[in-house]
Amino acid sequence: MAEIKLSDAQRDHLIDGIKSYMSEELDADVGSFEAGFFLDYLIKEIGPAVYNQAIYDTQAALTQQIERLSEDLLQLEK
After folding, report:
1. Are the CB atoms for 42 and 21 separated by under 8 Å?
2. What are the angstrom distances between the C-alpha of 32 and each of 18, 37, 40, 78?
3. How many CB atoms lie within 10 A of CB 13?
4. Cα–Cα distance measured from residue 62 to residue 70, given in angstroms and rounded to the nearest whole number
5. Which is deepest, 28, 39, 60, 71, by most CB within 10 Å?
6. How many angstroms separate the CA atoms of 14 and 4, rounded?
7. Residue 77: φ, ψ to 5°
8. pLDDT tens-digit profile of 37-70?
9. CA-to-CA distance for 67 and 14, rounded, in angstroms?
10. How far is the C-alpha of 73 from the C-alpha of 50, rounded, in Å?
11. How many CB atoms sit inside 10 A of residue 18's CB?
C-alpha cells in the first residue's frame, strides 16, 4: 500500500477536527502539535485498515455493476 499523504489543507482541517473533538468530548485541550502527532498515529495504525476496507467495498460495488451489465447484455441477445 502506498503511503497515505494529505495536502496541507486536509491535514490542517483534520487537526482542527481532532482539537475540537478532544475539547468537546473529552474536555482535553490539545495543541496543533499534539493533534498532529495523534493524526500521524491514526494514519499509520488505522489508515491501512480503512484503506483496505474501501478497496473491498469498491470491488464489491464494481462486481455488482458488472453482473447487472452482463444481465442487461444477455437481454439484448437476439
Report:
1. no
2. 9, 9, 12, 65
3. 12
4. 12
5. 39
6. 14
7. -60, 145
8. 999 999 999 999 999 999 999 999 999 999 999 9
9. 38
10. 34
11. 19
Beta strands of the chain (E only): which ranges?
none
Which grid cell sits at 11? 491535514
Cell of 48: 491501512
pLDDT level of residue 9 (50, 70, 90 thresholds): very high
Task: Give the pLDDT of residue 1.
Answer: 65
Neighbours of 32 (CB within 10 A): 13
- Tell me which residue of 43, 20, 42 sits closest to 30, measured CA to CA: 20
pLDDT greater than 90 at residue 6: yes
